[in-house]
Amino acid sequence: MVKFTRRKTSLFFMKILKFKKTYQLPFKHHIPNFIKIHLLKTKLYMRVFKFLKRYIYIILKGQVNLEIYKILPEHKKILWINISAPSLGDSLMDLSSRTLLKDRNLDLFTDKKNANIYKDDNFFNNIFTEIKDLKKLNYDLIIIDSYSSRSIRIKSKVAQKTIYVGIYGYFNGPEVNRVLYSFHQMNHLLGYSKNEHEINHSAKSSIFISKKDQEIVENITPKKYITIAVGGEWCYKIYDKWDEVINKIMLSDADLNIIFVGSDNAIQISKELLKKYPKKKILNFTSRLSFNQTAEVIRKSEVFLCCDGGLMHAASALNAKIVPLFARLTAEMLLTRKIQSHTLFDERDVNNIQVNDVVSKYHEAVNHVYNHLPDE
Q1: What does pTM read for this prediction?
Q2: What is the torsional sign of CA 149, 150, 153, 155?
């Protein structure tokens, strides 16, 4: 009876320790985060319920004893499962630390809509979107983005008995700087091969553009132009004063070439803007190019005006000159020291940002000399 009680007590404390992982950073260095805000806003019972749901699911899938906490030299062939955060921007941020695994044989399993981003990647050898394509492959280690039921289910199907590490693991809910989180956690898993300063000053997203896409973009863009991202998924991140910005910019350069970029949600907005400038040098590329081709259009531009979104993260990855408009999440939460940007911020909505301030930042970016070091 005493032994049974001790065992139950031991298991209880083990679960408590794991529950702390839902809100404690898994590495020793600080990064920008909203952990305290999350703990204040989210009821304890809800956080406990979500943790227990995940923990029990991992037990039921036979994965609880396969988790390890280091990536060792013998882990040469690795599969990274990145499926929990399906947005393009989150994908770029969460997978940014793959650059620290350049000496490994690395494959990726991801969402279908994200797969094409990495088709010409310098670090992922193979990109998979179907479980059936992985069943005959063997790996030394699996990297799992987070311990969501979906990610654990996929892991248990493709590599039932293979050991794994987590990037977010049980950590769930609090907003963090996702690029810095990815880099610091990967550095932690690799045994802190780099110090805090090295990580903070090198961390950034990466995207690689094929020669074919570069040639396509070269043939359809003018020699000199700026890009503006219109549209968006969230109202508080959709700026509705781009026409006023364009008017003021064109006062100083009437012959300026402008290219609109964006996804399907930008089509109508871009059409309305085009009606206002029938005789101006404006091209509309919204929803006409692939994500990587659009990223290349942005890279080649003099300045990129945008709000927070996937294209902003692609622009950051390609060292483009950016003037991003942020709301609710600050630049500290969304960018890193490696990114040179000219940011504007409002606590509630990007539409509270004044047109004159956007124009001022635009001119600041145009006249700024960028000294980006080449990526390793």
Answers
A1: 0.92
A2: negative
